[in-house]
Amino acid sequence: MKKSHQGILTLAAMFGCAATFASAVHAQDSPMFRNDPVHSGIYKAGPSSFHHVKWTFRSHGEVNSTPAIVNGFVYVGSNDGNLYSLDEQTGVVKWTFTSKARIPSSPAVADGLVYFGSYDGTFYAVHATDGKLEWKFSNSGERRYAGTHLHGSIPVGETMPDPFDVYLSSPVVWDGTVYFGSGDGNIYALDAHTGSIHWKFQTGDVVHASPAIADGKLFVGSWDSYFYSLDAATGKELWRFKTGDDPDIHNRVGIQSSATVSGGTVYFGCRDSNLYALDADTGHMRWHFSNHGSWVITSPVVREGKVYFATSDSATLHVLDAHDGQSLGSLKFQWPFFGSPSIAGNALYLAGQDGKLIAIDLASRKTLWTFQTEGSRKNLAGLSNSEGDPDYQSAFASLFYDDAIIGVAKMHSVGMILTSPVVSDNIVFIGSTDGNLYALE
């Protein structure tokens, strides 16, 4: 293989590399990202078989925002700059709130307000009933993670925003306060009712992971390579943990994965290719699991002593012993995972960049059913090689950064699922880069 083609494939492979509440929650509600402040990703029973698409809502941009569902309504952002409120049973729009930029932040709902961030640098609180603005808060300037020679791109000396930084930090509401990270490097704590700032904590780089909260402590990672624990009430740093670094091409550095907290341990993935398990009180590493070069963008889910998480370019669902990190098995797929796995009842739901949602029986680890997005049905074959793997070599013309952006856009046309599946009232909700939000039953 020629050196230039080797570089293209290297760049392209990086594409692979998705408590208590402040208010009472309906039994089937999912009021925030990963369902709760600890980011459990665990829901009540979901469908064991797929019957039909209950409804499809089409926006005018990619839907990379994982929906929140409260009191019969679905709240979801789109890269068309709108936050939508939809009827859970019909998909009919109740109201629309328009920001000035894309909304890949997953909303949170509490005490009648919907909270979300936009790439316009503003964090919003709007009324759940009619979408009217209650308050807004401006950060110091939203941006994507950026670096020189990013993923091996040229020109070498040019600072480039990372096209795989596809999310904004999703808010968590706890004890009357809303918490979120920002591209300005800060973690913010605002009064959930007024928007006044309680505190902010400065990290060394972009924070687009969503904070998790357990036992009065906040847990979140930054693109500065550190994972932080803060006192949720005061913002005081309790401890920090250093992950890997990559000062040359900035490829294996940074924490996009949002943590989950279970049994006194905080679990999170990193672009340094590790899944980490840290003592929640001290930050001491209990164990780590190496994925041998593959990013871990997904958030793990922990249940009954097992940790489930999926990788990017190695496209593998791993099952680990939660206590010591030993492998209990794995399932290999072909396309990467950014969207996080969710568990409902006896099934695990996993959505991939091939635009397919897979329901897996937890006991047998066999596929129960599969759903394919509209964009995937239309475009997947044309962007797959003869083995069914992603055809990065065709999508990425060269190592020049502009060609990388074009290549990423081509791959997004597959109708990828970058959101995490949400299960409510036996319906599975997923968004896609084809612009659709799907309700499956």
Key attributes of the depicted protein:
441 residues; mainly beta; Methylamine Dehydrogenase, Chain H; 4-stranded antiparallel β-sheet; 35 strands; 7% helix; globular; disordered N terminus
Give a structural overview:
The protein has a single domain (3-440), classed as Methylamine Dehydrogenase, Chain H. The chain is 7% helix and 38% strand. The protein has helices at 3-13, 374-379, 392-395, 401-412, and strands at 42-43, 53-58, 68-70, 73-77, 82-87, 93-98, 108-110, 113-117, 122-127, 133-138, 146-148, 159-161, 172-174, 177-181, 186-191, 197-202, 212-214, 217-221, 226-231, 237-242, 260-262, 265-269, 274-279, 285-290, 301-303, 306-310, 316-321, 327-332, 342-344, 347-351, 356-361, 367-372, 422-424, 427-431, 436-440. The strands form nine sheets. It has a five-stranded mixed β-sheet. It has a four-stranded antiparallel β-sheet with strand order 2-35-34-33, with no helix packed on it.
